[in-house]
Amino acid sequence: MSFSIDPDATLLAITEEWPETVQVFVAQGFPQMGDENKRRAFGGAISLRMATSLKNIDLDAFVELLEGAVASDEVLRPESANGEAPLRVMGLLPCPVRIPLEEAFEEFAEGFQRDTGRSIVTEFQAASVGASWMDEHVNSIEDPEDFPDLFISAGFETFFDPKGIGKFREAFADRTPYKTFNPSFDGVDLKDPEGRYAMISVVPAVFLVNTHEFGDEPLPRTWGDLLEPRFEQRVSLPVGDFDLFSGILLDIRRRYGDEGVRKLGRSLLESMHPAQMVKVGGRPKAPMVTIMPYFFTRMARPGSPMQAVWPSDGAIISPIFLLAKASGGEDLQRVVNFFCSKEVGEVLAIKGLFPSTHPEVDNGLAPDAPFSWLSWDWIEQTDIAAAIKECEQLFDEGRDGR
Question: Model's pTM, two decimal places?
Answer without folding.
Answer: 0.76
